[in-house]
């Protein structure tokens, strides 16, 4: 044997590498791994490289196997040792080396295996250091990842807290504004609800709540449009100031700088300025001409009322079956079948004894497009008339279907300008204001109801649009009346 092993003092010579428990340095401190993990790494290294990358003597292999047996099964015990054959020399040598380890603990056997393998194989320590480096890098990455996740969670929580605080402030402001609007309109909505559901306070309360909610939404839409108009006016004013500054700095208005420019460049800039001035003059003349046409048709007082038009109020109510039954039980004028691709225009003149128009409508099974316009012209009749046109006719027949939603409210009618060019002697068309733009309403679930205060004398145009439907016809139930 290369070295003696004593079983009583729990020590091995320098070649065995295990010392007493009082003087030995724990392997976890020397190698940076827990003892059990270090032993498993050492044993895996030994199994993979024995006879390949490392070549140990027969005696060294017996020592390592003895440490392995002691770490796995504890001290040698004859009753637990496997029976050996007569010719099993290797088995007998292994039992002798195992028996020489004596009563050392399994932990000491693991340390002995690691230290002995380190002594006999120079490649073992670099292998363990590489594994430890890889482990440390992985731990650092995981720790950094955890720190980043923690920072991200904190940022997200802070952002959510800020959003909650902002949302609370916005909700508080919204409620304050809605309460103020509800106080202003409560009496008016209450009177209307009492007319719709006499003697039924619960239905009246539901209808008042719907009216107040719809009024708030319309108020916010109107406020948003006003803000957009103000922003557009500011942009237009800034652009006008920039144009005036450029015009003031041109050679035509700056005698000192004009002498420094070459003649060709000066002529080019003057030509551009003349062109811009001509375009501005033409646009100004077009605006004056359009305003003159509108004023001639309406008169100055009516023109002022025309440009100051208030928004409509729109709400819904759930009693759709009762509503359709009531409309169907009438003389039949309130029930219309709108074919696919068609548009129905209901012309309702203002009543000299009224001050507000009300409308109600619903359909069977499918939605319908709805919008309402106001024609600024004295009604020629007090009768409510209905006009049906398909989509092509609705685009081409301006006399019957009047104006499209893309025409400018303040510049008059596009059809008016076209008519003036094609037939100068033809009477100009009356201008039309868009009170409610056309878009699709799910009026097969609820009754859509609305009202609008008369802006002046004229004709309301209620548009029911089915032009987007290729195959389906729609059955429309509607009712229109005015309030004194």
Strand content bin: 15-25%
Helix content: 40-55%
Unreliable stretches: 1-25, 252-277, 279-306, 394-422
Our Rg estimate from Cα atoms comes to: 48 Å
Global mean pLDDT: 76
- Measure the end-to-end span: 124 Å
Q: Enumerate how many helices there are, as a single number.
A: 13
Series of H and E elements: EEHHHHHHHHHEHEEEEEHHHEEEE
Q: What structural class should be given to the helix and strand makeup? A: alpha+beta
Tell me the major beta sheet: 5 strands, antiparallel
* Backbone shape: elongated
Strand order of the largest sheet: 3-10-6-12-4
Total beta-strand segments: 12
Instruction: Name the assembly state.
Output: single chain
Q: In summary, what is this structure?
A:
The chain has 484 residues and is an alpha+beta fold. It has helices at residues 27-31, 35-49, 58-73, 89-100, 106-120, 124-196, 201-248, 255-258, 263-307, 320-328, 391-396, 398-401, 414-422, and strands at 5-6, 11-12, 313-317, 335-338, 342-349, 356-363, 368-375, 385-390, 432-441, 447-453, 459-465, 474-483. The longest helix has 73 residues, at 124-196.
